[in-house]
Fold these 4 entries.
Entry 1:
Amino acid sequence: MTTRETTAPTLRRDARENRDRILAAARAAFAAEGVDVPVEAIAERAGVGMGTLYRRFPTKDDLVQAVIEESLDAFVVAAEEGLADADPWTGFTGFVERVLELHVENRALREVLAGTEHGHARDAVRRRVRPLVRRLIERAHEDGSLRPDFAPEDMPLVFMTAGRVLEAGRGVAPDLWRRYLGLLLDGLRAGGATPLPRGPLTRAQMNRLLDRERR
Amino acid sequence: MTTRETTAPTLRRDARENRDRILAAARAAFAAEGVDVPVEAIAERAGVGMGTLYRRFPTKDDLVQAVIEESLDAFVVAAEEGLADADPWTGFTGFVERVLELHVENRALREVLAGTEHGHARDAVRRRVRPLVRRLIERAHEDGSLRPDFAPEDMPLVFMTAGRVLEAGRGVAPDLWRRYLGLLLDGLRAGGATPLPRGPLTRAQMNRLLDRERR
DNA sequence: ACCTAAACGGAGTGCTCACTCCGCTTCTGC
DNA sequence: GCAGAAGCGGAGTGAGCACTCCGTTTAGGT
């Protein structure tokens, strides 16, 4: 008996190849058409049958999650780069921009993070990035560049809305989101901040809000 | 022969009653569940059969459009009220707020205007409101309160994004959109405005962008 | 070579919807 | 009242999709 790996039943070579092909196809298909592409289209693109695909990924959600995972590292790296920036403000905005650039490349990422559904994958990402984001915001608060009433719980709103613009502009004005983000970021600056009509979400509310979107 | 109305073939009394009941049911159903409610649910709620509903509204789109039309006047009134405000800035922001309040009441309105589909109905609304909005923006520009690089073609972004927040907050934090709008409006003020990374959409681009969303 | 567990493919299933068809019922003008 | 046009209901149709079943093929250890 060889060492008992947690869950690595060593796929047969053909199986492993197919798995990779499926992931590549899914990545491309999601990027091109959004997570709504029929599973069948992905199977075809990958040159495998439905059965094959479903044995590897028992659920469409699993497939989505696997594709997302590939962007996860880039996401964390973006946050770390932001923290590495000497200027807390450009560190913060640079992070936001970088994440949105990832959204451009990977439509699934946006659709999951901005939360139309697939809550499970989203939770995983969020857990990992949350502390970094919190620190990014704290830094910009201490520095006096970010308006003090902006809370970490407001971040989903930023991604949600910018993501919406990004999606709308796809194919017509691919960088329109940068303009929108410019407007919004000017609103986040400490400079001309005006009292807001209500407080941020509590963390529980935020979770509930994002969860409700799973459908 | 009585006067030839453009298209008023004088429905039979029962037909007219049913038509009204269908509209009422649709309004309620859309508000409660969004435009995705099955047509069947509306028919049931109205106490009529599918056949009846479809004879009156040959397409689900027609039904959506009819419901929207009911909010149209309120929409125009909001713009006129904004123009009546002596202060161009509060006139502008008051209009935006009022429109979003309409979105709260009438989920279909948002789903159509913010442009997930049903482009036809949207076009009708836009044609009617556009000149008023243009004037609202001009006034605030002349007054120096609205950042000069904000263009009328940016308005859809405002409604699109605020509407997104509104929808996300529904049932958890119904007034969350007001907070988001506060942030964004601070970004629209002339005060701390920073150069934007790209220009606004051309009108043609805007139309294309909104049209693409019809699916 | 050979044998068998693993892997494969794609037609089939079940579900949700928008939309249609048609035999029956009800207004309404004469 | 009574024709017959106008209206009605709701089972049925077709299309799109996620997901399953099972007879066939193949990798790879011996």
Entry 2:
Amino acid sequence: MKTLTSGEIAEYCDVNLRTVIRWIESGKLKGFKLPGRGNNRVLVEDFIEFLERHDMPIPDALKSTANPSILIVDDEMPLAKSIQRVARRAGYESHIAIGGFQAGIMLSQYQPKIMTLDLSMPGMDGYSVIDFTRKQSRYKDLKIVVISALDHISLERALDLGADATLQKPFSNHDLTMVLEQYMSM
Amino acid sequence: MKTLTSGEIAEYCDVNLRTVIRWIESGKLKGFKLPGRGNNRVLVEDFIEFLERHDMPIPDALKSTANPSILIVDDEMPLAKSIQRVARRAGYESHIAIGGFQAGIMLSQYQPKIMTLDLSMPGMDGYSVIDFTRKQSRYKDLKIVVISALDHISLERALDLGADATLQKPFSNHDLTMVLEQYMSM
DNA sequence: ATTAAAAATGTCACAATTGTCACATTTAAT
DNA sequence: ATTAAATGTGACAATTGTGACATTTTTAAT
């Protein structure tokens, strides 16, 4: 639960400390007060939300602290491993989730930049995963890469629900690398 | 009677340890001292009361105590709703997750005190959910109540994997209430 | 364009709170 | 029992909040 002081925010925004305090007092910037004399603290996420709401630039120092990772959701271990190999060769850290439950837990745990999702997992509705994720504002920046052997119509539907890209099986390592690189650099 | 050290509180509040000790000394935060040199300890409930009194954010890890809730994992909406009714009558807040992915996300989001889990969900391996959850230290205090129409052997296996209680379908509202009350009061 | 009023931001000094540091001591872990 | 990690303390440094007022920027009307 990282927080920022009014002074730090003042510096980030290149603005006077007095002004930051006024933003907080007027409710424009959500914050809370320490019990002492009421020194202000702001959650980083609230500050970022504030910056985005006002189209203000986000300081590099606040852009996702952890090194960005990829979450591979697939119940076929060999395929998952293969995707992981490609990711590693491209220089990215990744984690494998077998099944929906693990995927949900690991998604919130690792806050990955990209989630690759196998649509044709037995007994797991990939569409609802996409749909549910997209309705959570917390994951609005997550890139969803759908992987599937299904037909064109199915991939289209995934895109409609909010997937960012699709890869039809079988796909080349090169294609996968391209997609990963594209989104990891965003 | 879980307690927190001054250091843990400092971390939760993203504040210096010195400051936490001052809060305690000035009576703003209720605590007590160990016999040794007087190292400080604070009851979780006192800490939460303190946070609420000052409109400070409550760390995820403490949500299960601050706002105890029940996560109902079931893909049969009628049954899920019925469990929710029982929970509400007993005075507990609850959320329904349809499918494993939602369950995973909502588990980390709400940090519930209890998770009811339908073992016989099509295409979702309830056992692996139990197993995976139990291996995460984060959820070591989560109570897992398995609900199923399966035979005794299956329920036994769930317990072996780490479930805390089982309810065989059909179950009475009374039995469910008993189980919920037992764990919610822990 | 010009101008005046309104709103937002900056300045300054002082007091209160919070952070830092080194070191002794206690807890926790092995 | 031994060792590593966490905690308490005092003195002092740095940051922060506040009120009153000066400046700047925005808005609206002419």
Entry 3:
Amino acid sequence: MATIAVENYLKRILLLSEGGEEVVPMGALAAALEVVPGTATAMAKALAGEGLLEHQPRIGVRLTARGRRLALNVLRKHRLVETFLVETLKMDWAEVHAEAERLEHAVSDEVLDRIDALLGHPRLDPHGDPIPSRHGRLDSQVYATLATCATGRRLRIVRVTQQSADFLRFAEESGLRPGTELRVDERNLTSGLVILRRNDDSTLALGVAAAGSILVEPRA
Amino acid sequence: MATIAVENYLKRILLLSEGGEEVVPMGALAAALEVVPGTATAMAKALAGEGLLEHQPRIGVRLTARGRRLALNVLRKHRLVETFLVETLKMDWAEVHAEAERLEHAVSDEVLDRIDALLGHPRLDPHGDPIPSRHGRLDSQVYATLATCATGRRLRIVRVTQQSADFLRFAEESGLRPGTELRVDERNLTSGLVILRRNDDSTLALGVAAAGSILVEPRA
DNA sequence: CGGATTATTTTGATTAGTCAAAATAACTGT
DNA sequence: ACAGTTATTTTGACTAATCAAAATAATCCG
């Protein structure tokens, strides 16, 4: 059985590699997992030995089919658990990430299937992140962000990447949830400011970094 | 934070010591945790250093107040999770023990409180085991068992200790659940046999060991 | 009492995961 | 092209948890 650390490495590589296809450099992986680079290298070699990823020395790692399958299963657990915590236990979406980070390693496939059924087989978690299917299909549509989309157009928020509790609390208070409609009034890359306008005509300023973590689609 | 291993040691000591009061010998502890005795000794010394238990060399261990508090919290998680799995997710009571064994270490106090509320603050888990209160009170009434009670009297099953899936499946099929009413027709300690009679007059034979894990009270 | 049995502790190794810091390779820009 | 910077790997050490097997203490009985 994969240990918790192994599951975390695989999941993180999946998230850093646009669905497991791209090569992830060791530095990025180590930083994301908050370990020193040498630790990531050591683990990469071990996981390569297990056939869960390919390690191209001095370049990075890429998941094998088996590694990807495992990683998707962990991600599915994470996102379904988050959905469960919000929908069933009525927790705040800012808190659920940390909880799911532990629960994803303790929930069996059996329990997960029942949670999935209880929730009515959701396809998106509370942040709008797609939930991988039981058999490893992951909807990874590429969306524009508030930092990159055209200004002036009517938009709908589809997803809020960035899981920090602080940011999510701020987003909640500011009405920036999946489903919210708005548009970008103005964007100034020099000052790093993005000005949003809500449907009620109120405005809100955001830094580009924050704006980049909010994915949007043109309003239908 | 206590590691998973530490939580398991504390919980096991609690269960082996009638609520944390009695001294548990190392052999019993090691056997229950399926580790070699030396391992249990090593851990006992470490936990004594942490102030979670007292280690009386060559005698055994006893929980301190702090150790007991921690152990009760783990046990509360275990039993509430089991209840949740049966009540909310409709799992079979034979499966839930193994699941709870992992989940008890991943569920936060926050999530637990919400599960507790969702279930309506149950006092017993699906096996009839008492659920410790949030502040560490544990109802530990002493019951007779089918191996020790008087024969002939009308009884009600209150609790099924013994968590193995095999046994629980058998109990389920035989109608031996908490709440079931029956009596002991006959008990032969030489042959090790206990003969039960259900309310519909059907009978069932059980070994004394199995009978000892079914707790009963006189029918009201 | 004292030898045999049984329980417990000690000692020495092992594994997984980690860090610190030295060594090495690759890339960058003039 | 080469010196400097940056990224990666290697090496050596540490911690938590475990096992195997030797050493030691306690208990039981004839």
Entry 4:
Amino acid sequence: MDTVEVKLQTLPKQVAGVLARRIASGGVAGGQGPSEQQILQEFGVSRAVAREALKILASLDMIEIAQGRRVVLRPAEEWDYLSPLLIDWLPPEQMREILAEAHATRIIIEPAIAAIAAKHMTKEKLERLGTLLAAMSASEDNPDAYLKLDLDFHMEICRAAQNRILDRFMYSSRWWQMASRRISNQMPHALPSATEMHRAIYEALVARDEKRAEEAMRRHLKKTTAVGLPR
Amino acid sequence: MDTVEVKLQTLPKQVAGVLARRIASGGVAGGQGPSEQQILQEFGVSRAVAREALKILASLDMIEIAQGRRVVLRPAEEWDYLSPLLIDWLPPEQMREILAEAHATRIIIEPAIAAIAAKHMTKEKLERLGTLLAAMSASEDNPDAYLKLDLDFHMEICRAAQNRILDRFMYSSRWWQMASRRISNQMPHALPSATEMHRAIYEALVARDEKRAEEAMRRHLKKTTAVGLPR
DNA sequence: AACATCCACTTGTCTGATAAGCTTATAGGC
DNA sequence: GCCTATAAGCTTATCAGACAAGTGGATGTT
């Protein structure tokens, strides 16, 4: 143990991170993935750690593991871009692309969610949304708190749609937005405008007006363009 | 080793499957998850296997593992329902619900994909789609082959949208449809009708008509209702 | 050239330790 | 009695070395 011992994460996760970044950057030659032996030598960790690191990459569909065969790389089109791990490990350019694609996906999905939610909306949920809205209005000078409330607001609406697949999507959406926040210290003045748009969504839901909820959500997302994405 | 040695899957996966089914069925009392010790005793496996089984459950967001603390169960709303593993391990009723929700999600997403694809469609992609369509037409007496072509057809369209998040969604969709095929030996007569609808989508794409592609896809999915889902 | 056998390499599993982090209870001081 | 600090005992994390099992290629034979 001659190295500095920082323990921000578990050891296998750190190793997996290094490997993932290397693969994502195209720094791996053939279709051959990293073998246990290579990891042992390069990182000086035990086999258990090396194996767990590989399992992590496999769970992201970045590699394929099978007994007897060497680890092979899998096509990047099938990686699990919904995972917070992979988001962290992508090189900046790819990360920006993915965040833009994620936002485009939100524009497809969330208006539809809002429409369904308008149908299923209950008094209790509306109350909770109202509370969130008030809190947002009061947190416009605190971007971190505002983001959390924002995420909760959208998630609460999604829950009303009673669709676990959509729930999962919104759950992943949390990581993208936190990542996008991380790379670009965001629009400080846009928050009041955001609250207005959220209120418009809320009022459409109160009225149980599917079309209006859908349209309000679409307008909100189109305005809240993915931050810090040049080109 | 006094038990029969069947090796359909790796050992940790089998253990994880038993645990996951137990958790999903509500057969676990408090918020306490299974500990390594409990697994050792119950299944008679090594610690390495027990640990990997837990890691699998953690990768599905079913449990939370942290050093020193006991394993705790996570809320079912946040499980990774897009994973083929979890789909297999859900009890039948939940599985049916999820499949219905997955289909509802397809109806939201895929028409939008078709519209975007119509914009970006290239000659090469159209050719490949045409080939797939011909193959489908010729495989209407072979449901298994037909399903594979069907999946490829939808995936090919999705690829044209150039959105990795949507790609990932379609990739997961594969597992749902294979699962839904598994639980209900499906409509043998519906295949010719399906080919017609696929052709309608194809022709809209050829014409690069966004609205028509969107509508054709929607009609297709609304007709191809999730199979074997009563009520 | 075709086929069977064997061998080297890879991942899968087992055993038994030690390290590190958390919870709880216990003992001490005030 | 109450609060604090220490220690004990639980949990997961990591290490080490071994053997089992599966794959693919080399080898050798026919």
